[in-house]
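Consider this pair:
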Amino acid sequence: MISIIESKYCVPLAERYRVLSHLQRRLRSPLKFSRASVRTVYFDDVNLRSYYESRDGHLDKHKYRWREYVGPEEGGARYSIEIKIRSASTTRKIKEYIHARLPENYRPASFRSLISRLGVRHGFLPDDIPDNLHPTVTICYDRYRFHDLRDEDVRYNLDSNIRTYLVTPADTASNAFIRCDTDILEVKAPADKQVNSGFIGLLGLDAKPISFSKYMWGMEAWASMSAPFDFF
């Protein structure tokens, strides 16, 4: 696995299209998969270990998630299954893309059952995945992807229209949701690559990276609405 340095920046909703216009002019959109509508289901154990790792600022964090790419381009995967391992500012991912279609209204009971249902190849995932990981919240957003003009390994993702659902419905449009009050710009690069630190300032954004976890935000958004943390 390649170690990635990841930085995140707040993009006020009122600034979304101005920032997007700057990104389109100053960066390069990939020829394929430059945009995506993403639906991500996060899994956690009965003690909400992943949530508390993020909330309490642990240097070592683990996230388990299943992504659905809504209306993918031709040749694109329909799903991915991921384990995200973060140590300080360095991130590693174990990720498998899935092209086969799942049955309509499929809802995974656990991370293990999802792995089995998707037929993830043996040896791809580590053996020490907890057995008691169950779905908690769903996060949906629209992603715009860009590459640095000089180095395509330096990537910029603008995640907009971020919203959370407490359950994992097949049709989220018919269910209550909470919308995030900001968009997020992610900058990702291999640990040995140089990122133009002045670029964020050119976008007119606060150049200081923020700590933002979509999963933690979704959990706390529902907690603020008095939704119980009794997911299991």
